[in-house]
Write a structure and sequence with these properties.
Blueprint: H1 2-12, H2 18-30, H3 35-78, H4 82-110, H5 114-129, H6 134-158
Helix pairs in contact: 2-3, 5-6
Length: 159
């Protein structure tokens, strides 16, 4: 869903910038719930206030709820069929590709200097090799960004 949100919100509708959407993703990662739903809520709120937030959330969740309910009603009858299993295997591969596409697009906009590369690499290592919560990782990345930018600002003032 993240690539679709990015394309619709930034490229097609112009409701938010790439940077704002990345901020919404980061906040959505820290708040309870699904990142895509949280991001939609933030964008709806930005556009039309509280009612926009409710409408965006309902509009995002309702179609999925209907589709999942219909699939759940019938999946037991078809889950054992080879073609259904093959289809789900293909869908999983597609989801991985879509997530990678979103990561690459976000990375191009987010990693703007050497310190961003360092922060990204550090958080990636922590994410892969530890069981730290994503909330902690986002807070650590934010704290690192604040510290680095403040140190750079102090160096510039001394010169």
């Amino acid at each position: 869903m993240l690539p679709i949100i990015q394309r619709e919100i930034v490229e097609k509708r112009g409701w938010a910038t790439e940077e704002e959407v990345m901020d919404y993703y980061a906040i959505g990662q820290c708040t309870p719930g699904i990142i895509a739903v949280n991001t939609s809520t933030f964008i709806g709120y930005k556009q039309k206030g509280v009612l926009g937030g409710f409408a965006a959330t309902f509009g995002f969740v309702f179609p999925s709820l209907v589709i999942i309910t219909i699939i759940a009603a019938f999946i037991q009858n078809f889950a054992h069929l080879p073609y259904v299993t093959y289809a789900f295997d293909g869908i999983r591969a597609c989801v991985c590709a879509l997530i990678l596409d979103a990561v690459l697009k976000l990375g191009k906009k987010s990693i703007i200097d050497k310190w961003c590369v360092v922060i990204c690499a550090g958080i990636t290592v922590l994410s892969v090799f530890t069981s730290l919560s994503p909330v902690i990782l986002v807070v650590l990345a934010g704290a690192a960004g604040i510290c680095i930018k403040n140190l750079e600002k102090m160096k510039e003032e001394k010169v």
